[in-house]
Amino acid sequence: MTYRIEAVHAIEILDSRARPTLEVTCTVDGHTATAGVPSGASTGTREAVELRDGDPNRYGGQGVTGAVANVNGEIADAVSGRVFDSLGALDRALIDLDGTDTKARLGATRSSGYRSPRRAPWRRPTASPVSVAVAGGV
After folding, report:
1. How many domains does the chain contain in total?
2. How far apart are CA 46 and CA 56, in angstroms?
3. Is 81 domain-assigned?
4. Widest CA span of the chain, in angstroms?
5. pLDDT tens per residue, range 16-50
6. In angstroms, rounded to a whole number, what is the distance separating the alpha carbons of residues 71 and 111?
7. Which partner for 22 in 57, 69, 113, 125 could form a disulfide, CB atoms 3.0-4.6 Å apart?
8. Count of CB atoms within 10 A of residue 18's CB?
9. Contact assessment for residue 63 and residue 12, using Cβ atoms and an 8 Å cutoff
10. What is the dihedral of CA 22, 3, 92, 128, to 10 degrees?
């Protein structure tokens, strides 16, 4: 079975701790789901890198407009219109696109954001997109 990614779009939102993070909407084979991405609190040396803007005038430097731009630009360009045979194949394409072990170039937040909502539309549900997002999202 194959899956065609029709669209992906991200915006900056605030998480439950009032920290900026991504909300990503993904459409696969006519099914759309949206999910907010929890920002990480772990700081291990092998952790994937969250991209933060660093502008002290916006959320104390914690904004994610650069990560939003990565999703809406390079990532959307690379995956929109493409057909994948599995979620693993899509994950591999995103890892290859980033090109780093820690997802430092495009950011880990974008990876998590893309993963959560895309799982729901890949299930090819018969329910509405809202119930799909709740059942398969974050």
Report:
1. 1
2. 26
3. yes
4. 48
5. 889 998 888 989 888 888 888 776 665 566 566 77
6. 9
7. 113
8. 8
9. yes
10. 30
